[in-house]
Amino acid sequence: MLRIALTRSSRAMSVASQASASDSETSVRKIGKALETYLKNSQQHVAMMEKHRAEFETGRRHLAKMMSLDIHELDQAAIDRAIQYLFPSGLTDPNARPVMRPPDEILPKFQRFTFDEEGKPEGTRFFTLNPKIYGLLSEIGVKTQSVMKFYDEHVGSRSVNRSDLEPANLSGSQWITADKMKKKLSEKFTNELYGQVIIAFEHLASLPGSAIEQKFLSEFREPMTASTGSKLFGPAIPEVKVCAETNRRYAEVTTHCKDTRATVKVTDAGKGTFNIDGLQLHDFRHLQAREILLAPMIISQTLGRFDVTATTECISNTLPEAPNREPFKRSGGMSALPRAVRHGTALCVAALHPESIEPLRLSGLLTLDPRKNERSKVNQPGARAKWIWKRR
Amino acid sequence: MKTCGRVFFHNARRLAAHKFTFTEVRYLSAQPKAESNIEVGSLSEIQMSVAKHLNLKTHLPSPLSKQMDTLGELVTLIRDPMMEIASCMRVVDKTLPALRLVLWGAFGTGKTVTLNQAVHHAYTNNWVIVHLRSAMDLTRRVKEIEMSSFVPGRINDPSNAVAVLQNFKQQNQHVWKTLGELFTERDYEWSKSERTAQGKPITEIIEMGITAPFLASDCVGALFRELRRHAKDGKLKALVAVDDANSLWGKTLVKRADRTYAPPSDLTLVVHFRRLIANDWTNGCVLMVADKKEVADARDELGVSRHTPLELFGEEGFEFVEPFLPIETTNYTESETNTLYDYYVRKNWLASKSARTEEGRKQLMHLSAFNPYYYERLCAFN
């Protein structure tokens, strides 16, 4: 009896939304409370999604009208632009800003069970209560077996790439956290299960030959927070090039400090010479300036190895001046110009001498200094200074 | 005379190009004793008694004279420009016009120190030395002025003139006896009461100037005139060493009665020194330093001015000194810094632990940008 009821109700579920209210009502009465709730929630969710989809479509039409666009032109990128324009937000957290996206993307998903024709739950792992995570575990097991077999077959042979017989390269990344894995598999599970999965992953990754499963492993890895990668503020570490004539390695980068923009080229295998707008190091008569210029080499302990060539210009010189004003020739000062060159040099040294990336980053030389001269205010003698107040 | 000078200028250039072979040959044959301690890239010590005798404490750059006081010895590095000067001084002859050398180079590369080394070299060879600490003293540090009674319109500078004579007397004690045996060519009538008769020793002129400051400027002229004449006759060899020589054609801070600045050609001492520089005499060597302190703005901390002789002497001055041999002073090479580093470590002048490491040695070298002045300054604080 119960079985028949289950079969009927699951049939109703397999067609999910199409289930008519009257048909299901008769059968639902005979089945358990849990399934009853599930069916109710399922129907509610379907109805809600229908409503939201309709609302989204209407909203999209209205938006197209407001932005005087054709409805077909209003794709998701255009919607984002329109929202940014209509609701300008100064909030820094992107999650706090207004957004308009299809409801399927942003509303919480409803976890739906799948059933076969006979009304049996699909997949034998249904009864483990955690089908996804056990599926992953068994997948890892299968892959472990195949990796071991692959290694045993090909070790010593020349038919495969030698790098395929190494353990997978997982440097600079870590296993995703339990929360992220729950989200990824859209399933709840205990910490013990998560621990088992990680142990299985570690075992697989440690095997020689696991490099062939690199792609699978990296799906469950995320970059370490401490690694520099693309985390640098300001220009990134440039690529190393090789000069065709001299066959020397070099790197080139453009950066700025305050009002000075510097294009710096650092060449490897040099003598430690400087050429900054035609000036050599001894033309910087203040020790402060020379210290700033040499800081990247001192920190990376490569004094006398790199040649630095730099050209500088004043950013404000390139901006248009008010028509009634004489163009004012400015130039970088005692420390701003060397600092601009130092930032460029540090980035290039990091590119040419990767061992020194970490010390350079820790000493703050790879980070752009975004500070600028504060603009002076109208009716005030300076940025902050005020005229002396005087009672008439 | 001028064409002759030009020819010589070219010859001297060629000599400078082959200076190493040349010096070695002349070393052994000519005066082995006096020059035996000169070797390029080596440290040479000037005895403290000699340094005192030559009054080097006032003539050297102040950081070096302070270091001399602290370490109790004066040790300098013999570098290429000094070798060039030494080889040029060796060819000085009665038949050749006074050889003019101009030391030029960037700030702190050792122009003044090389000049002082040359003065010491002249001392060891028993030359007469006319050494001026800075020509700028004559044009910009004039404390009191007097109008000349000898030439109308000239401006005398008694205090500087006395200083020049006193310095000459102090620096030439090694040849004082020889100078005492040289006699004046003619009568000098200094004033109504003071005169120096013909046939008196020229040291009397000096004594006269020192005791009577109002006559000192004219005495300087007479002394230089006698020196040139005796050099021509081959009785002595003279080294004229003028620091910041381009200031002789620079600007002055001397005001005339109408409150305008006097041109340097109106200053008696400047005129006398210019006559020494003019190569119408023989058997001598004129060593000049072209320094940018004459033209550079001391308050401009960032600008980099040119330091080539043409820019510094100006059109007029350059034309005056024109057939000359330029000698460039440059920054240290790595081996030169290492020599000095070893010396400073040996003297415990480099005291801190980090400065005595290999990394410290490299940092000192590069932070000073191989510039001798900056290197000395850095080593004094590490």
Main attributes?
heterodimer; A: 392 residues; alpha+beta; Ribosomal Protein S5, domain 2; 5-stranded mixed β-sheet; two-stranded antiparallel ribbon; 13 helices; 42% helix; 9% strand; flat; B: 382 residues; alpha/beta; 2 domains; 5-stranded parallel β-sheet; two-stranded antiparallel sheet; 11 strands; 48% helix
Explain how this protein is built.
Chain A: Keywords: Ribonucleoprotein, Ribosomal protein. Chain A: It holds the Pfam family Ribosomal_S9. Chain A: One of its GO terms (molecular function) is structural constituent of ribosome. Chain A: InterPro entries: Ribosomal_Su5_D2-typ_SF, Ribosomal_uS9, Ribsml_uS5_D2-typ_fold_subgr. The complex is a heterodimer of chains A (392) and B (382). By secondary structure, chain A is of the alpha+beta class. Chain A has 3 domains: 2-106; 124-223, no CATH class; 241-316 and 330-362, Ribosomal Protein S5, domain 2 (2-Layer Sandwich), CATH 3.30.230.10. Chain A contains 13 helices and 7 strands. Chain A has helices at residues 2-14, 21-28, 33-66, 76-86, 103-106, 131-154, 178-185, 191-206, 214-218, 287-300, 315-318, 336-352, 357-362, and strands at residues 173-175, 221-223, 241-242, 249-257, 260-267, 274-276, 307-314. In chain A, β3 (241-242) and β4 (249-257) form a beta hairpin. In chain A, α1 (2-14) packs antiparallel against α2 (21-28). Chain A starts with a helix and ends in a 30-residue tail after the last helix. Mean pLDDT of chain A is 85; it is low at 1-22. Chain B has 2 domains: 2-330, no CATH class; 336-382, no CATH class. Helices cover 48% and strands 12% of the residues of chain B. In chain B, α7 packs parallel to α8, α10 (158-171) packs across α12 (203-211) and α12 runs antiparallel to α13 (213-232). The longest helix of chain B is centred in the middle third of the chain and has 20 residues, at 213-232. Chain B starts with a helix and ends with a helix. Chain A binds chain B through residues 272, 279-287, 290-291, 294, 297-298, 301, 303-304, 331, 333-334, and chain B through 106-108, 301-302, 304, 331, 359, 362-363, 365-371, 374, 377-378.
